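WARN retry 2 of 3 for item q-0093 after timeout on previous attempt; input resubmitted unchanged.
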Amino acid sequence: MGGRVVRADVDREELGLLLDLGAHQVAVALRGASLDPGDPIRGEWDLVVLGPHFAAALLARDLGDTGPDLDRTFEFALTYDRDTVVRAAHGLLSRVAPRVATPGAAPVRRATPATAAPVTGLLRTDLPRTGEAVLDRALAATSSGVTIVDMTAPDQPLVYVNRAFEELSGFRMEEVLGRNCRFLQCADTEPAAVAEMRAAIDAGREYRGTLLNVRGRERTPWWNEIHLAPVTDAEGRVVQYIGVQYDATARVQAERALLEERDRGRSYLAKMERMAWTDPLTGLPNRRRLQERAEIALWDARAADRSLALLFLDLDGFKAVNDSLGHEVGDLMLQAVAQRLAEQATDGELVARMGGDEFVVLVENSRGVAQLEALAERILDALARPLVLAGQEFTITASIGVVERSVVGGDTTDLMRAADLTLYSAKADGRGRWALHDPSRDEAEITRFALSAAMPAAIEREEFFALYQPLVSMADHGMRGVEALVRWHHPKLGVLGPGRFIGLAEETGAIVPLGHWVLARACRDARLWYDEFGDAAPFVSVNVAPRQLHEPTLLPDVEAVLAETGLPPHLLQIELTERALTSDEGAPLKALDGLRALGVRIAIDDFGTGYSNLSYLRKLPVDVIKLDGSFGEGLREADVTNPVDERIVGTLVELGHALGMTVCAEGVETPAQATRLRRLGCDEGQGWHFAAALPREDVVDMLRDPDGPPWPGPDDEGGSSRP
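OK item q-0093 returned
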C-alpha cells in the first residue's frame, strides 16, 4: 500500500512528530512482519492507517497485556483526535518484534512541528493519488451510503457522497453536492423525527434514527436508517457531520406488518374475550364471567372477613311463552328482563344470565339479609310492571332463591348450588316470590345434585364398575346367564348402589354414556368367558333405560360394541322396563326389531308393575319376561304361603309361556320360594338364594369349578347342590 512504512519500535513521541510533519500519509503495514514467537496472533496481520490531515481510519487488535483470545477486541474509529490515533498505533506496534532492517533503507527523519501542514478539511486535493485511491476504494466498497456535510458553510451542504449513496438517493454525485440533504425528505416524513435529528445536530451530538425519504425524481418512498456523527477540529468545533445511511425499507415494512398483525390479533382477542364473557342475546355477563367475578369476590371477602350473597332468579311460565308465541317473542322478553334487572343493580352487584330464563345477581359485599330481601323485592316489583311484546301485554313473575353465607371454607360452586336449590323451593311454595336458603331443607338435595354434577367426570375416570348376578335355571340350577349391575366407587362416599345414582343419570342424560360404558364392559367380560368356556359360557344381560331406548344411537352402539368385542350376538340380552316399552309404540318397536335382527335377546324387566298392554306386548319381539320380585314375596316362607300371590305368579307364567317367552323370577331369596316358583313353571330365577352380584373373576371361578355352582340344587331346598 502507499505511504511511509514506520519501524515497529517507533515510540509515541516519534509517531506524534510524524503526524506533525505534514506528510501526505503515514501508514504502518505489518503484514508478514516478524512477530514474537510467543504472540498468540502469529500468522495473522493488523493494519493501522493514519491520516494526519483528516480523520484516522483505525482497525486495531487489542490483545491486552498477556494476549488471551478472550481479551481480543476490534475497534473502528473516525476522529480528529491526534492523541487517540497515536495511542492506538503505539499500542499495536509495541506488541510486534522489530522488522529486520532492509539494506540501503534511509533512516526516518524527525520533523519539527513548524513544518506541519495545516488541516483544511476532509475533501483535500493535495492527497497523493495512491492514498486517495485507497480511500475511494474503501468507501466505494461499503454497501452503506456515506455522506459528509460541511457544517461551516451556509445551509450545511453535502461535500462528499459515495456511490452507495447515489444508488440510495437516486441522484448522481454532481446533482447533490452543494445541496442540503433535506431534498431526501417528503411531506410524509415524520416531523417529530426530523425535529429530533435537527436537535441532535444543533447540540453537536450523534444521531441514530429511521426516516421516511424519497428516491430520485420519481420520489419513490424508502426508509433511511441513518447514523450521523460530528467531526470536530482542534478547538472542538463541529466542522463536519459524517452520515452513514442504509435502506431499511424491508425491515420497516416487516416491522409494520408485524405491528399490524399484532394489533389485529389484539383486536380479535378483545372481540373473542367479549364474546366469551358476554351473553350475546342480552348483553349481560354470562355464566363464565359470573364465575370469574365470583371467584375474585370470594378471595376479597375472605381477606376482609365478610359475606358473599347470590340471588338465583328463574322466570315463571317462560316455557309457555316460547311454545305459544315463538322464540322471537321469548327473546324479546329475556332482553326486557335483563334490562330491568340491570337497572336494579347497584355498586357491588353483578347481574348475569346463566342461560335460558335463569339469571343471577352476585352481591359482592353483603350487609345482611335485610339488604338481600330489599333487593329481591325490588326485582319482583320491577318485573311485575306490564310489558308489551308483539302487540300483547305481559305480566312477568319470577321465583328467586336468596343465599348469603360466610365464605370461610366454602366456594362459589357451593354457593351457586345452594341458591339453585333455594330457587326451586320458592317455586314449590307458589312462585312469584323469593325464598331464603334453609340448610336443613336441602341437605339431601345438595348431596343429590353433587352426585349429578360429578357423574360425567366419573364416567370419564371409570369410577364405575360392573358386578354380575347369576341367572339360574330352575330345572337344574345351572347358570344360564348373568345380569350386569353397575356400581359407583365414589372417591368420597365409597361404593354406591344403583339406587343412589341411576335416577339422577336418567334425569341429567348421563344415563346414555353410562349405559354405553356398561354395555361395552359387559360385552368385553362376556367375550372372555366365551373364549374360555365356549358354548357353556353364560349370556350377559344389560339394562337399557327408557331414554337410551329412544336414542337413535342405541342400535349403532350395540352393533359397534359387538363388532369391537367379537361377542356372538346370542350371548347378549337387553333388558328394558315395561314402562319404557309402553311409553311410545313407534320408537321402541323399531329399536327392538333392529336388535332382534342382530340376534340379540330381548327381556322385559319388572314385568307386571307397569301398564301392560297385552295387545301391544303380543307384537313385541321379546324373548324373556322377568317377574318383579314383589310377586314372590308371599312365597318365601316354608310353612306359610299366600294363595293370591301364588295364583298371580301362576297366571303370569302361563301368559308368558302362551306368548312363547321364557319366564324369569326376580328376588328369589329362600329355598322354599325357589321350590314354589319352580313348581309354578318359572324357567329361570335370580336372587340372593343363588348368589349376590359377583365380580367377573368370581364368575370365572364358578364356571371353572368342577363341582358346580355353590347354591342349593333343585332337589335340596335346604342345602347345596355340591356333594
